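quick q for whoever's on today - can somebody do inverse folding on this one?? i tried earlier but teh output was garbage lol. tokens:
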């Protein structure tokens, strides 16, 4: 093994940040962004140093980043490759810097290592300024945190500001996402998507995000829609249509609250995560793994045994009751989570936590675009509401037709946990926005319910 020759400021940047990382893990059970901020203050080009010798896969987009990142990471790991990832979801420049510094060694490792990195949409340009990824993945584009990102077209522009800096990177794109077709870039591009319908719907919902042709602004037509505005689209006016797919779902053989059995490019796979949106995540991970030369048997085995990322369909046992935590942050993702919950024919309990912190988006008016009405058809024994904006979500659920006589107001996590422990039935679905999910998991960790916080 050789030794990295680095500048003195880079050396101290790494060394001090490593000390902070160790202290953060021991004292605060986390602290994934602060060490990176310190490192960048000491050496603003530190990413140039700590990313050397890595083949980097960047995963961005509105929904599915964490799960897709986790899937690709596990496929690489199971194939025997050396690989790192920012599995805590710290996807800003500072968190990504912390991840690379945490794994940095002053001696050069033999051979190439892989880094599968989730990156916030607005931070892609900040990362590609310092490294050239092997692959950039864009999962989808939905309205999310409008106060931060604006509309979906603005989000696309933020991502493309980063893509144009690295024409050598291969793009893996969701072909069913109309905003991602026919991009004006020289990058080698592969598309994945569905060649079958999950329903008989061909009419886009009034609240869908990208309903109009990106070229001529005419309303799209669809051969089928998977969810929101995703599907096999075409414009009857100018001829713009979905690009050719390299990797595609040809049949959905089974769809349950446990997972999905699907046929992809004439091979059968079981994806051990429920919902159509997780089929997209699995398909994206498979597409990337194929491009990285991973054997099909490894891909299939990994998808079959994949475990939930924290807060993403995470199952926890509380005194014999199954608690399933699902991160929800925008109308498109929320609808898919509710559709997955609706597959459960048992008596169920619902706990909905709504926050309006910066990381959630200050404006919570988006909850009125969520199809909560689907819950009125389910066998719900108890509905627990909590979070900073608990009364907003309580009103929304009442308007949706949920029996308000079965509502329980959870003013704090102690009350919420007590109500969960005493509810009827064996399953409780917790649908929480980002900071509510993080805080609730931290609370459960202090109670010993969750052993591993990150």
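ok took a stab at it. sequence:
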């Amino acid at each position: 093994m050789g030794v990295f020759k680095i500048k003195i400021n880079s050396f101290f940047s790494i060394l001090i940040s490593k000390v902070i990382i160790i202290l953060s893990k021991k004292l605060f059970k986390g602290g994934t962004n602060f060490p990176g901020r310190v490192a960048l203050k000491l050496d603003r080009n530190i990413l140039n140093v700590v990313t050397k010798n890595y083949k980097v896969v960047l995963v961005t987009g509105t929904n599915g980043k964490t799960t897709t990142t986790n899937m690709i990471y596990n496929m690489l790991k199971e194939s025997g490759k050396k690989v790192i990832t920012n599995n805590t979801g710290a996807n800003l420049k500072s968190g990504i810097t912390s991840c690379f510094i945490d794994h940095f060694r002053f001696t050069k490792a033999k051979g190439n290592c892989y880094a599968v990195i989730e990156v916030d949409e607005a931070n892609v340009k900040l990362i590609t300024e310092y490294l050239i990824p092997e692959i950039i993945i864009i999962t989808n584009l939905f309205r999310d945190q409008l106060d931060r990102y604006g509309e979906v077209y603005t989000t696309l522009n933020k991502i493309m500001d980063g893509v144009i800096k690295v024409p050598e990177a291969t793009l893996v794109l969701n072909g069913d996402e109309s905003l991602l077709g026919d991009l004006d870039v020289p990058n080698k591009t592969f598309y994945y998507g569905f060649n079958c319908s999950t329903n008989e719907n061909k009419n886009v919902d009034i609240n869908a995000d990208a309903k109009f042709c990106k070229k001529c602004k005419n309303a799209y037509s669809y051969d089928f829609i998977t969810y929101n505005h995703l599907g096999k689209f075409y414009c009857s006016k100018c001829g713009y249509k979905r690009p050719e797919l390299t990797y595609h779902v040809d049949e959905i053989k089974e769809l349950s609250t446990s997972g999905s059995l699907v046929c992809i490019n004439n091979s059968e796979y079981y994806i051990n995560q429920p919902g159509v949106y997780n089929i997209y995540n699995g398909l994206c991970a498979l597409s990337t793994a194929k491009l990285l030369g991973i054997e099909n048997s490894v891909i299939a085995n990994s998808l079959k045994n994949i475990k939930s990322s924290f807060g993403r369909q995470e199952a926890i046992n509380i005194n014999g009751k199954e608690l399933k935590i699902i991160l929800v942050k925008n109308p498109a993702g929320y609808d898919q989570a509710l559709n997955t919950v609706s597959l459960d024919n048992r008596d169920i309990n619902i706990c909905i936590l709504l926050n309006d912190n910066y990381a959630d988006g200050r404006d919570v008016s988006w909850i009125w675009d969520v199809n909560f009405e689907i819950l009125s058809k389910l066998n719900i024994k108890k509905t627990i509401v909590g979070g900073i904006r608990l009364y907003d979500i309580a009103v929304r659920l009442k308007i949706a037709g949920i029996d308000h006589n079965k509502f329980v107001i959870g003013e704090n996590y102690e009350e919420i946990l007590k109500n969960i422990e005493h509810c009827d039935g064996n399953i409780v679905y917790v649908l929480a926005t980002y900071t509510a999910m993080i805080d609730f998991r931290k609370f459960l960790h202090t109670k010993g319910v969750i052993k591993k916080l990150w």
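fwiw Residues 8-27 form the longest helix (20 residues). also The domain at 8-305 is CATH 3.40.1190.10 (UDP-N-acetylmuramoyl-L-alanine:D-glutamate ligase). so keep that in mind when u check it
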